[in-house]
Amino acid sequence: MSDGLTAPEPAQPDDGHARAAESPAPAGTQVGTARVKRGMAEMLKGGVIMDVVTADQARIAEDAGAVAVMALERVPADIRAQGGVARMSDPEMIEQIIGAVSIPVMAKARIGHFVEAQVLQELGVDYIDESEVLTPADPHHHIDKWRFTVPFVCGATNLGEALRRIGEGAAMIRSKGEAGTGEVSNAVVHMRTIRAEIARLSVLDPAELFAAAKELRAPYELVAEVARLGKLPLVLFTAGGIATPADAALMMQLGADGVFVGSGIFKSGDPARRARAIVEATTMYNHADVLVKVSRGLGEAMVGISAGELEPAARFADRGW
Amino acid sequence: MVTPAVPVRVGVLALQGDVREHVRALAAAGAHPLEVRHAAELSAVDGLVLPGGESTAIGRLLRVFDLLEPLRLAVAAGLPVFGSCAGMILLAREVLDAPPGQPLLAGLDVVVRRNAFGRQVDSFEADIDLIGVAGGPVRAVFIRAPWVEKVGDEVEVLGQVGDRIVAVRQGSLLATAFHPELTGDIRIHQLFVDVVARNRGRRGQYR
Prior knowledge:
The structure holds two protein chains of two kinds. Chain A has helices at about 35-40, 55-65, 75-80, 90-100, 115-125, 160-165, 185-200, 210-215, 220-230, 245-255, 265, 270-285, 290-295; strands at about 30, 50, 70, 105-110, 125-130, 150-155, 170-175, 235-240, 260. By secondary structure, chain A is an alpha/beta fold. An eight-stranded parallel sheet of chain A has the order 8-7-6-5-4-3-2-9. Chain B is of the alpha/beta class. The longest helix of chain B has 13 residues, at about 185-200.
């Protein structure tokens, strides 16, 4: 029942990680526990989280049935096209989006940039994405996410990477895919890889899990937990290249708990309609009749670029380790 | 506790949210759980759980997939329903701080305030005592949780956090602002399964 909720509790923050704002939670209660952080992601399951760059887009996403929005200054397709250093968004813009919608608002911090994360937590963002889509701030270390009250989602291309992030305190994992391409193949590869590696662990002899942990370069305790559960101890979404309702349903049928759509919606011809269609396809991913209905007449999908043609330096998925 | 010879069939509305956790808790409480996505599936259940999730998203999907009216009718006809968090909102007569046009089932005579305890950084756990749940306090997990701001005469308050109402019952309708499905403590699901079992004698009314 309470699988994966036995993770260590965060140490009480005593520095910039502490949150200044007063909590309305009554006395004698506990905030920022692993159960509260992972539980938040459980509530997003079966849903679509949409990248938005303005308050108007956020409202369109909420009206379409998004379970959360990701507030950012440029969608990944534009980060790719324009180049330069991609950083955390302007707090003013994030506040406008928080003010515009009632659903959860997520925002991205650079890999290893714990001060961007402090700023986002102070803003009241509901989830932080420590994201490879932004330019990494630290080539060696990810953020120590246990020190924060706000939960984090991190990307992963394989099981070892997912478990390293969980070891650092991530409360939700998304397969990385290749953001900003509109091409789903990398998302498929990463989801299949994670699933296959979990399946392999579940048939190993307990004595073999020590060597498996070494091969995966992941904490032994988490490897043993995944072997026992037959799944990650928390929610696994998918991201990176999902552009159509069928893409979303594909990823759900491959075992994703839910879907992040970045550039795919607001880089398309009719964003509101495509947003609704992707939400409905994610709910009824096993019902081909619904997929037919929602896939009809959506207008232009985002143009996209073939992920296979990207130069190695242009691959976001290789950022982080 | 009622222990029916044939397990009661309890549906979990499976449009979005933590469906799996409710399914597991119901099975552990001795019920036969079923996922409900279509109106036709409603006629096969003795009771229904509205899971945690995003109430705006679930509300919209209820409309899109033609479940809103059948559910309203079933609730009005006496189908036992348990809602946690978003489920409590959907079950309410009125909701504050929600976008206009939020679809509601209007079974419970309560006014609920959405995200009343604050944003995710304010989400918390607390031990609370519940009327009708023996064996000590339950560990309640509140996630961007609502509270009940007003209750009608028919509504029994089962539990509070501070002076805020977070668990209510009205006949065979039960709602919590927190998530009993996340803790592995099945006492609240057990309470609901007992309500469903007692109600089954009157089956047919809401089919």
